[in-house]
TrEMBL record:
GO terms for cellular component: phosphopantothenoylcysteine decarboxylase complex. It comes from the Eukaryota. Residues 265-280 have a biased composition (Low complexity). This is Flavoprotein domain-containing protein.
């Protein structure tokens, strides 16, 4: 049992450690805050899932972030336990012949685990335990199919069951990735709007242009994986600050100054375990082309705009965000939108005020 952190001390470093099966949230997170930010990364059947091992490897470098991966059946064609293990091993500079504990790494959970780890009533149910454990859920990449299922409330696999069972106070980031025509399909805009406005998930990307894996040139490519790592780290930092402040009634207006990853950082190319894609070879993260046609601003209820952590407002349910009209401003990216929201105390109240 490992109640403190999803990691073990190696000879001179902290190595990530897979959680024991069956997974029980209480065994993997203490009842009191321990400074660890717990992230569930959902991968779905977009080719961009090949970047998930890079995300896992980069996050594993942080002793303060614990990770579980949930892979849909389709996404296991692109990312699985072996590719994630290899990426993490490489990111720690561990040779193939170096002996490691059997549970080294980050576990990739699949639909089979949901059922093979459950035998009878009373035993832990994987999607429930994972949602109890999570401080943040990131869907990267989010396929058109998974997006449609979430928007429609379907829950026919581990990933969508977890999302459907998730507390509304747990933030979710969605990173769509699909062919340009899939992205420009009318249903995609509709589904993104439902997911953003009704479920209040954060939409990050896709990139507004670029050559896709299928050869098409246009919007639909997943936001650069380093930007996704950067965003998760921002959330971790916001969460940490909230924990440190306890239930103080005042929070700074600007709670985090985003910093660009340093060139020596794993996220700038060195952490690429599988050499997939030309952008991995570049030392700097390329500028993400703006996301076209997505809603770019959120109008907050007046009562919530000046709320700070610790305040409660019984008159206004936090779900009362008015619908957002799409603005189609291609100059403003989703990440810029998120950074703007990051400075809104609303989101702290929304997610971590309890
Ligand atoms: C090689 C390959 C690449 C694919 N890439 C994408 C993609 O980038 N985005 C997408 O939405 N679907 C893509 N698909 C289709 C999805 O895998 C398919 O819709 C699947 O049902 C998604 O299931 P999931 O959402 O449960 O993971 C791809 C399929 C194949 C065979």
């Amino acid at each position: 049992m490992n109640t403190s952190v999803n990691a073990i001390a190696g000879p001179s470093r902290t190595l990530p450690r897979k959680s024991a099966r069956p997974f029980v949230s209480a065994d993997n997170r203490p009842s009191e805050p321990d400074g660890i930010f717990r992230v569930v990364l959902i991968t779905s059947g977009s080719v961009a899932s090949i970047k998930a091992p890079d995300i896992a490897a980069a996050l594993s470098q942080s002793g303060d972030i614990a990770l579980q991966i949930v892979a849909t059946k389709s996404s296991t064609h692109f990312c699985n336990q072996q590719t994630v293990d290899a990426a993490i091993r490489k990111s720690f500079g561990i040779n193939e012949d170096e002996n490691l504990p059997e549970d080294f790494g980050v576990r990739v959970w699949t639909d089979e685990d949901e059922w093979s780890d459950w035998k009878k009533v009373g035993e832990p149910i994987l999607h429930i335990e994972l949602r109890r454990w999570a401080d943040l859920v990131v869907i990267a990449p989010c396929s058109a199919n998974t997006l449609a299922k979430i928007a429609g409330g379907l829950c026919d696999n581990l990933a969508t069951s977890l999302l459907r069972a998730l507390s509304p106070s747990t933030p979710v980031i969605v990173c769509p990735a699909m062919n340009t025509h899939m992205y420009q399909h009318k249903f995609t805009a509709k589904h993104l709007r439902i997911v953003q406005e009704q479920l209040e998930y954060l939409i990050l990307g896709p990139q507004g242009s670029g050559i896709l894996a299928c050869g098409d040139d246009g919007p639909g490519k997943m936001t650069d994986w380093r930007e996704i790592v950067f965003t998760i780290e921002n959330f971790a930092s916001m969460h940490k600050q909230k924990i440190e402040q306890g239930r103080m009634s005042v929070v700074p207006q600007r709670i985090h100054q985003p910093q660009q990853p340093q060139s020596t950082d794993i996220r700038n190319g060195d952490g690429n375990a599988n050499g997939n894609g030309p952008d991995d070879a570049q030392p700097e993260r390329p500028k993400t082309p703006p996301t076209p046609g997505l809603p770019t601003s959120t109008v907050l209820p007046a009562q919530l705009q000046n709320m700070t952590i610790g305040e409660t407002n019984t008159d206004t349910p936090v779900s009362a965000i008015p619908p957002v009209e799409p603005q189609g401003n291609a100059n403003e990216t989703s990440i810029a939108h998120w950074k703007k929201m990051q400075n809104e105390t609303y989101w702290q109240v929304r997610w971590w005020a309890g």
